[in-house]
Amino acid sequence: MRISPGYAFTLPAVLLLWVILFAPLAYVLYSSVHFNVGRSASFAGLSHYQRFLEDPYFWNALRNTVAFTLGSVVLHVLLGVGVALLLAQRIKGRTAFRIVGLVPWMFSSVVVATLWRWMYHPQFGVINDILSRLGLRELAQMAWLGEIAFALPAVILTNAWRGFPFVMVMVLAGLQAIPREQYEAASVDGASGWSLFRYVTLPQLRFILAVSIVLDTIWTFKYFDLVQVMTEGGPANSTEVLTTLVYRNAFEFLEVEYASAVAVFMFLVLLVFTLLYARLTLRGPAIGG
Amino acid sequence: MLKATAGLSVGLVAAVRGPKAVRAQSGKVSIRYANFQLAEEPTGTALRAFIADFEKANPNIKVELDPSPYAQYVTKIVTQSEAKQGPDALLVNDAWLYGWAERGYLEPVESFISKPGGDDYKKDFNPVNLKTGTYKGELYILPQFTGAMLLHYNKELFRSAGLDPEKPPTNWTEMLDYCGKLTKKDASGKEVQWGYAVTGSKETGSIIRFTHWIYNNGGAVLTPNNDASALDSKEAIGALRYWSELYTAHRVVPPGPTEVGAVAMRGLFAQQRVAMYQDLVWGLNLIANQNAEMKDKHAVAIFPTQIGQDRAPSFLTFQGVTRYSKHKEEAWRLIDFICAKEQQVRLYKAGRFTPARLSALGSPDVQGDPAAKVAGEAAKTMMPQPPIPRWNEIVPVVGDAAQQALTKARTPEEAFRAAHQRINALLRR
Q1: Alpha helices per DSSP H over B294-340
Q2: pLDDT tens digits, residue range B134-154?
Q3: Which pLDDT does position A58 carry in this prediction?
Q4: Which terminus of chain B has fewer CB atoms gathered within 10 Å of its CB, N or C?
């Protein structure tokens, strides 16, 4: 039997991909339907998945993950589009401002988490120092990451700062691709300000915004390090997200099989968004007009 | 072409599998030793010196060090052990022991102990450490350090507040009174000093510290058989109420206690922002490392108790051999060397790590230190952590309840009754 050399050349890459991508995935799937993986494994069926129903920590983490993802993505889009529109103006020092706008994106999540954790610090943080100088003494004693009501919003705000440059860069690129003639034609028809944005800019950005939102949702949904470093899911689980729940179950409680089931659940949710992303990118900008 | 591809593929698989964990080089056996204290001082320097001595005494053994910091230690050990690629010997503490033993990461050490003298050999170790290291009838580790929580206080701040520095609080009424006197405001009315540092973070160490308050009020987390929660008792709920109200009602602790863990707590004490905190005896050295001025101001005492006797939760450190080691005998020789009397005395002198070996604890080098006597006294009545693998899951439930009370999300009664039900559900699973 003669095998095409093309297949032979690609075999190492295919093997590598299989080992790196599919072997861990297969192992997690296997682990999620077994007891005692790695020792005397026995088939567990869907019992680890059934545990979701009675595990209040799972539902709490799911709620927090949805809130964290939704809050972060909305703020990324609002800040990203807003800053991109400002930076698209013909202003002096535009390049410098664009570089500055990218700064949050340049830091690793752990650095960002540590920076903001210090900024939020009740005694030594810059936020409480400013509040104190403004005479807001009660508020200046606030432990922003230590209070159930404020911890999740504080983490979302940090993630908004860290993640908006991605949307900003995408939108900036999109803005540059809009032909000037369309603005000129709309202006001749009497459009200005908001109506130019509403009827010319926004329709042209629909594709880029859709791709950005889907990608950002995927990234944010599985975000781990920011939450882990800032709050470890506390106080009282008010910032526990699915990724930190998986981590706690696998590494602290040694419930590797249950952690695998939660990870598979996350994989299935993200698969929906990944398929949406694939559909969007395969169909191309036509959907954006 | 196909041959080349097959060769490449085999090489690829070999690369992914990684080098064999143990390599024999010119007859030398190489073993890997993991210990987060290698990444800390003064333990890092001391342990490296021990291992150099060990290699000199055992020229056929080469020890490869794995100095993962504490924050990554558990993640790394669990990942490696699940892949059956763990180190040969490692540090284990009592918070991880039962889960790791149950999961099959650790090798029982009884068969090794029978060689140096069996029961006579074991007699030299603190019985609480040995009991704690025994799981399902098998001893899994060799005890290294013993530790009970003490009250650390700043004598200078006591004097400034008109308190006798030789008479630290012994019960909770005195504790609250002292905390009130030690909490100070500046001229503008801003609080700048507090009586005590409540550790309300999610760290295991913070939660175990909190259990000291439950024990010292006559309560417990679990029933004596460790098969049900005991958090619904009036003693346990009373302890949570007293502890949380230090912040929520009396404001004698720094703001944001749910963010305060061991590092923050020691930082506040070293900067003289809090007058009292809860730590092992080695805190004396850790604080002096941060602020040398504290050396003469810092003292330790038995923790205040409501039941006339201290019942400090144990903080024990062990050395173990892993089940997947290919050179268990050599790994055992290493941990036996590390836990020898001479090394334990050296580590006490370097950083006040209280020896688990009675001969080391009784040596003049250790007993000459007044703090060792206080630590030894507390160790006599310390509470070992419950020997059940689910303890790792129970501790965060207690921590969540503590945080709910500190943030007033729930009253202490509601928080502990919810935790009680949750723990019972966990134990039934």
Answers
A1: 328-338
A2: 999 999 999 999 889 999 999
A3: 96
A4: N
SS3 label, residue B106? strand
Q: According to the model, what pLDDT value does residue B414 have? A: 97
Rounded-to-integer distance, Cα B333 and Cα A253, Å: 30
**Parallel, antiparallel, or unpaired: how do β-strands B89-93 and B28-34 relate?**
parallel
With 0-12 / 13-18 / 19 or more C-beta atoms within 10 angstroms meaning exposed / middle / buried, residue B369 is middle
Q: Which residue of B has its CA nearest to A141?
A: B255
Q: Which residues of A186-214 are buried (b: 16+ CB within 10 A; e: fewer)?
A: beeeebeeeeeeeebbeebbebbbbbbbb
The partner residue sitting opposite B104, judged by closest CB among A39, A54, A248, is: A39
Handedness of CA B214, B218, B224, B229 (dihedral sign): negative
DSSP for A81-93 reads HHHHHHHTS--TT
A-contacting residues in B 110-149 (Cβ below 8 Å) = none
Q: Which residues of A touch B399 (CB under 8 A)?
A: 234
Contact B402, B210 (CB under 8 A): yes
Task: Please state, in angstroms and as integers, the Cα–Cα distance from residue A190 to each residue in A85, A178, A184, A197, B103, following that order.
Answer: 21, 19, 10, 13, 73
ipTM value for the complex: 0.81
At A238 the three-state DSSP class reads coil
Q: Collect the ranges in chain B with pLDDT lower than 70.
A: 1-26, 116-118
Residues 6+ apart with CB under 8 A from B222: B228, B229, B230, B386, B394, B423
Tokens of B165: 């520095």
Burial of A138 per CB tally in 10 Å (0-12, 13-18, 19+) = exposed
Contacts of B65 (CB under 8 A, 6+ apart): B32, B33, B35, B38, B48, B51
Q: Where do we find the tokens 């943030």?
A: B407
Which of A16, A254, A256 is the closest to B12 by Cβ?
A16
Is pTM beyond 0.90? Reply is no
Q: pLDDT per residue over B78-108, tens digit each?
A: 999 988 888 999 999 988 999 999 999 999 9
Alpha helices in chain A (DSSP H): 5-17, 23-32, 47-54, 56-87, 94-106, 109-119, 126-133, 148-176, 180-188, 194-196, 202-221, 225-230, 242-247, 256-283
